[in-house]
Amino acid sequence: MATRALILFAHGARDARWAVPFERLREMLRGQLPGVAVELAFLELMPPRLPELVQTLAAQGCDDVTLVPVFFGQGGHVLRDLPPMVEALRQTYPAVRFRIASAVGEAESVLQAIAAYCVASLDTQ
């Protein structure tokens, strides 16, 4: 098992089809990051939830976790819900290093990619 993990952290939904793009992203990253455990965890409504996933990773010897909120912006879930969850994980797993990236939608490169997609959509009609 990898000692490093990259966890894509998403909201979750009742409809399993909602997770398909996140699963595709996870698979893309797995191909780009050999030796890193790339996983997907959800805040609610879908398994695995973040605490259960971290428990599994820690039991497998993972000691370095980077969380990437796959949210468009730094809203309530990223600002209010995620920090206490991670703090509880730090208390439970003191030997594991946790880092939290900004929400993906805050990155200039992501916004540029979305803008390019929007512009290209004008040509498809």
From TrEMBL:
CDD domains: CbiX_SirB_N. One of its GO terms (molecular function) is lyase activity. InterPro entries: CbiX-like, Sirohydro_Cobaltochel/CbiX. Keywords: Lyase, Metal-binding. This is Cobalamin biosynthesis protein CbiX. It comes from Noviherbaspirillum sedimenti.
